[in-house]
Write a structure and sequence with these properties.
The longest helix is centred in the first third of the chain and has 20 residues, at 15-34. A hairpin with a 3-residue loop joins strand 4 and strand 5. Helix 3 (121-137) packs across helix 4. The chain has 410 residues and is an alpha+beta fold. The protein has 5 helices and 19 strands. The chain has 2 domains: 3-292, Collagenase (Catalytic Domain) (3-Layer(aba) Sandwich); 296-404, no CATH class. The strands form 5 sheets. A 6-stranded antiparallel beta sheet has the order 14-15-18-19-16-17, with no helix packed on it. The chain has a 5-stranded mixed beta sheet with strand order 2-3-4-5-9. The protein has helices at residues 15-34, 81-92, 121-137, 184-195, 283-293; strands spanning 3-4, 50-55, 61-67, 70-73, 77-79, 110-115, 142-145, 152-158, 163-164, 171-177, 210-212, 236-237, 267-269, 297-309, 313-325, 340-352, 357-370, 376-388, 394-404. The protein binds zinc ion. The site of zinc ion (ZN) has 6 residues, from helix 4.
């Protein structure tokens, strides 16, 4: 789906990418032939939970199903208590200069995973196929069996399908129903949530493409059809509304807990026509995930412009640039061919004579949109000065460092 976190941006359709896409088309066709129509279950909720409703100070409304420590959004997106706290901060207008990102992405596109012992071999094979599909389609993604990595996905057999959104830190569980084995479409859909995607029907512009028959939806379920903006969730939409997206629910929702009449479409195109379940990853889904984990690969370049040391005072000054590349090794510079959002964090330090160490005294996040055609971006100056005594003990000084906050830093 096309709703990404703040970090994400427009996709670059590059030569390299076009080649990859051509290579996978035969496999795509084969997949369509082998995926028999079936129903998918993103709606079942774990028993014993309850709805928690938030009315935020800015007027946004969010309804989540709370079960144990998990807050379920739109049926199958599992928010953590910390993400819920962040949404409160974002929407209740607490005065914070630096705001944590609501959705985080997997650094460098590397996603460590494990299988819970409760999964059958057949289900593991299906999940492996789902990961392979994403890897083949999106060059920047790499699912790796977990070694000692702190942040990872554990695939688990469950009575419900759900996933966290983005990388939440630590172990994150993707629950999947075995019936009798895990369904490939469901695995690909839930993995997409863990990569940072929400649902297609919650786009803010969906009214230009679809009608939602609210009168057929039971009142307790209406929140499933709010836009993400109405829910107070920060996001970015990417591309046009995609009727083929694996992140789009079908027109006809047949869960009687959800709708009054299970034979009336809940969503239709503006011309009244309907669509069914989407069983495979669409070209639009691929481009969206590519926008997060694919090119451009980004590197910070520090260019030394002055360096001075007279024995008691030392200084160096660098110009810092953000540069774009077509390849992960950062050997092929490219220009952006679509505008792209970036986020840079700057930390400044000062030497404390009280604690005799460098302490942070500034933390700034800059967001910028760079137009198509940009070949690099001058971020600013990074400098470091120190005064010291004859024994090289630092007496005073300051320093600035820049960080690119995105999955493709090199
Ligand atoms: Zn979902």
């Amino acid at each position: 789906m096309k709703i990404l976190s703040l970090l994400c941006m427009a996709c670059l359709v590059m030569l390299l990418y076009a080649c990859q896409k051509q290579n996978i088309e035969p496999q795509d066709t084969e997949k369509k032939e082998t995926q028999a129509p079936h129903n998918i279950n993103y709606f079942s909720l774990p028993p014993g939970g309850e709805y928690v409703n938030f009315q935020f100070a800015n007027g946004k409304k969010l309804s989540l199903y709370k079960s144990d420590t998990m807050y379920l959004l739109e049926g199958d997106i599992a928010l953590t208590p910390s993400q819920v706290e962040q949404l409160k901060i974002i929407n209740d207008g607490s005065a914070r200069t630096f705001r944590l990102e609501f959705t985080k992405h997997w650094p460098r596109g590397v996603v460590p995973f494990t299988f819970n012992a409760n999964l059958s071999t057949a289900s593991r094979n299906t999940i492996q196929t789902a990961m392979n599909e994403w890897e083949i389609l999106v060059g920047g993604l790499d699912f790796v069996p977990r070694g000692s990595q702190a942040n990872y996905i554990e695939f688990t057999e469950s009575t419900i399908n759900n996933s966290p959104v983005g990388m939440i830190g630590g172990k994150q569980i993707i629950n999947l129903i075995e019936n009798p084995t895990v369904d490939l479409t469901s695995a690909e859909h839930e993995i997409a949530h863990s990569l940072g995607l929400f649902h297609e029907q919650s786009r803010t512009d969906r009214g230009n493409f679809i009608n939602i028959n609210l009168s057929n939806i039971k009142s307790g379920k209406l929140h499933n059809f709010q836009t993400y903006a109405e829910q107070g969730i920060p996001g970015t939409q990417f591309g046009a509304f995609d009727f083929n997206s694996i992140m789009l629910y079908p027109s006809l929702i047949t869960d009687p807990d959800f709708v009054f009449n299970t034979s009336i479409p809940t969503m239709t195109r503006l011309n009244g026509t309907t669509w069914g379940w989407n069983f495979w990853i669409s070209a639009g889904d691929e481009e969206t995930v590519e926008a997060i984990y694919g090119p451009p690969y980004v590197r910070l370049r520090y260019e030394l412009i002055s360096n001075y040391d007279n024995g008691t005072y030392w200084e160096n000054v660098n110009d810092v640039y953000l540069e774009f590349f077509a390849d992960q090794q950062c050997t092929q510079p490219v220009n952006l061919n679509i505008s792209h959002d970036f986020q840079i964090r700057s930390l400044s330090y000062i030497y404390s004579q009280v604690s005799l160490r460098w302490i942070t005294n500034g933390d700034y996040t800059y967001r910028m949109n760079l137009p198509a055609g940009s070949h690099s971006y001058y971020i600013g100056q990074n400098s470091h000065h120190e005064n010291y005594d004859a024994s090289y003990n630092t007496l005073s000084g300051d320093e600035t460092q820049f960080f690119y906050q995105g999955p493709n830093q090199r």
